[in-house]
Amino acid sequence: MKRLRKIIRIDEEKCDGCGRCADACAEGAIRIIGGKARLVSETYCDGLGACLGDCPQGAITIEEREAEEFDAKTVEGHVAAQKPAQPREKPRPPAAATHAQGHACPGTLAQMLHPRSATPPGAGDAAGDGPEPQLHNWPVQIRLVPVQAPYFQGAHLLIAADCVPFAFADFHRRLLSGKVVLIGCPKLDDVEFYREKLAEIFRQNDIRSVEVAHMEVPCCFGLVQLVRFALADAGKEIPLLLTKIGIRGTVCETGRPDVRSDSLRAAAK
User: Fold this and answer.
1) Which residue, 103, 132, 160, sits at the end of a domain?
2) Last residue of some domain: 64, 82, 103?
3) Kind of pairing, strands 156-161 and 180-184?
4) Who has the most CB within 10 Å: 98, 126, 185, 237?
5) Contact, 74 vs 44, CB < 8 A?
6) CATH of the domain at 84
7) 216 and 171 in one domain?
8) Cβ-count burial of 29 within 10 angstroms (0-12 exposed, 13-18 middle, 19+ buried)?
9) In terms of domains, do 260 and 129 share one?
């Protein structure tokens, strides 16, 4: 039975058949056929977009349209039937898409970075150009990050509105140091998609703590609600810290939410 829901869309003009999306799709919804990625069946696609960050050509997007419902039981049988995996056609990648870490666009390849320890206030790096960056992971955009990226295991997660690093000059030292970061905009982005994806990230990984950094403008508080509901959807009890940043670059307030997780879970239903 078809209903309106989120599902992947593959742009065949952009697809080069590299196969990374097929590898990233745990449900086996994507196969390489005739040198292009194809959606095998709508019932296999959960619409969460784990394959988005693995496409070096940006050929995969999420759209909302009438589609057959996702069927987890059918997927289980489909995945079992695919083992051992059959060799698939995999054309040689174009030179422009190849780099030192393998065949993937540097903009979407999940990478664990290793910044040095946080720099004390006022201290610069060896070149005297400023404090050391504290970015531990790439990509950072919620839509692009793989649900099971290796840096999520045991992570202290910072979920920041994308205006926060521009407004808060001490972002790297004060907020980012020692954390994995994800960014998004609760006003301009697809918040329902973000809610579903964050819930899967919480559900499938060992996240130790979550801090939400948002701007003081009212619409930005939507990021806080989004994370709360995603935690409730995932059924996880993860320590949550909220930090509000002013448009003039100050920390307006920081602290634990005063809403109990059980009431959030009831509100999320």
Assistant:
1) 103
2) 103
3) parallel
4) 185
5) yes
6) 3.30.70.20
7) yes
8) buried
9) yes
Same domain flag for 83 and 153 = no
Name residues whose C-beta falls within 8 Å of residue 223's C-beta, 6 or more positions apart in sequence. Answer: 159, 161, 184, 186, 212, 214
- Domain span holding position 214: 111-268
Based on the structure, what is the number of domains in the chain?
2
pTM above 0.70, yes or no: no
- Residue 172's identity, in one-letter code, is H
Q: What is the pLDDT of residue 98?
A: 37
124 and 255 housed in the same domain: yes
CA 216 and chain centroid, separation? 24
Residue 202 contacts residue 230 (beta carbons within 8 Å) = yes
List all residues 6 or more positions away from 26 whose beta carbon is below 8 Å from its beta carbon: 50, 79
Compute how many other C-beta atoms are within 10 angstroms of the C-beta atom of residue 235. 11
The residue among 161, 123, 155, 124 whose CA lies nearest residue 141 is 161
Q: Are residues 233 and 123 in the same domain?
A: yes
Find, among 54, 84, 56, 60, the residue nearest to 7 by Cα. Answer: 60
Same domain, 217 and 170: yes
Q: What's the pLDDT score for residue 55?
A: 80
User: What pLDDT shows up at residue 103?
Assistant: 45
Residues 22 and 122 grouped into a single domain: no
Do residue 116 and residue 231 come from a single domain? yes
* Cα–Cα dist 29/78, whole Å: 9
Q: How far apart, in whole angstroms, are the C-alpha atoms of residue 227 and residue 269?
A: 15
Question: Could you report the average pLDDT of every consecutive run of 10 residues in the chain (269 residues)?
Answer: 88 87 85 88 86 78 90 83 54 39 51 55 49 84 89 95 95 94 90 91 95 93 93 94 96 80 39
The set of residues, in sequence order, having a beta carbon less than 8 Å from that of 29 and lying 6+ positions away, is 8, 39, 40, 41, 44, 45, 46, 75
